[in-house]
Amino acid sequence: xxTGVFDASQARRSFEESLAALGVxxxxxxxxxxxxxxxxxxxxxxxxxxxxxxxxxxxxxxxxAVGIAAGRINVMMPILQDWEFDLVLTHNRxxxxxxxxxxxxxxxxxxxxSILNAAPFSGGALARGSAIHRFYVYRPADDEILAPIRAxxxxxxxxxxxxxxxxxxYSLKDDDITSTVCGVTWPQHVQQAMEWAEWPIPAGVWExxxxxxxxxxxxxx
Length: 221
Description:
Layout: H1 8-22, E1 27-33, H2 41-45, H3 50-59, E2 63-70, H4 73-82, E3 87-91, H5 102-110, E4 114-118, H6 125-128, E5 135-136, E6 139-140, H7 143-159, H8 163-172, E7 179-181, H9 188-197, H10 203-210
Parallel strand pairs: 1-2, 2-3, 3-4, 4-7
Antiparallel strand pairs: 5-6
């Protein structure tokens, strides 16, 4: 975090620290995470870089799959084009109010890469409600930023369905998405997420939501 170094030796150290913390000898999925914060992207992608080391770790049998997990799709897409990833993880960019990840999803599909969609609640706003959670994508949000969230809340309110259930199922019902990753704050929220995943949602909800405008801009810009 302090140095922004993404070279091979740092990747190996981070991996070994994770194995120790988890108490395991290997992992199913190994992601390179948040490459947009690296001090030098060529260090990530070039000879002796982190990516080279991740694929070496896979070759050693210590990881079954290698993925890229990050935010900015303009950074992710060139890397996805140049490397044979097994999966890609996008966050906050395939939600009820934002489709910034659409080009990334299409690229991943064309390359046979599995797609994980994380943060379907936009950092909590679509789970807790904009009235009490005045944040969007982990940052304080004003009324203008929260307006799309409130438009979704109005639709869900008319049908008396939880916004969180609709936000979660928006991702779960998408055939392009291999798996949905949703964060929880407290242990009891795990059960709540499972209930939301099965919540009956009338077709009218999806029809009305389809009529709302979405933004394709970067939510973290």
